[in-house]
Records
---
Amino acid sequence: EGSVIINKVKESPVGTGFDALKEEYVDMVAAGILDPAKVTRSALQNATSVASTLLTTESVVASIKEDTPAMPAGGAGMGMM
């Protein structure tokens, strides 16, 4: 039950969390589980970096997908000649 897990984590020492894979409470840093806040912050920093690079670039090369017509039907076999 999610609410039971949340309550137990709130009462636990700082850094303790629930490892859903092993279904046990562990020290998250010692178990090698990343901090979700750090992951989110890193994702935002990377996205900002890419966006600022795109905005300061004088030109961008992009591909425009062209609609190609369907292939015509093939010719009939020559067996009737």
---
Amino acid sequence: MKILKKILVALLVVLIVIQFIHPKKNQSTEILATDISKTYAVPKDVETILAKACNDCHSNNTIYPWYNNIQPVAWWLQDHVNEGKEHLNFSDFTSMKVARQYKRLDDCIKEVKEGGMPLDSYTWIHKNAILTDVEKQTLYNWCNAVRDSIKAKYPADSLVIPKKKSEDSE
């Protein structure tokens, strides 16, 4: 029983100590020149959809919930945000090559259509992030319109991401 008590006390001490170690927050009020809205039209209804269902993980400005102040939850959330931004970051969208932008918009359409985004782990707590059919259609239409504008502006071969050479083919 004494060993169990020591283990529980040690765990409690560790839990208290980690409360003082916080990851850097993903919060920026600056709208970068590379923000998608600086190059492509983002209508108000699309902006609203992105704000409620996408931007917390796919922009440089996360609105953190209260439980982000509890460790190790904050670490998990920050890892989740960082991973989301690796896949798609609307704040840094136009820094990507045009082929990657084109592909990311296609990925966005597919993820929303297939129910992969927003993630269930996000909508479980953020019920307002669950997209209605009308909102999904609005997002599809916008992504397709931006893709069409890219297609009209750039040659077709610039919209294809080159395949990486494998070591076997060298």
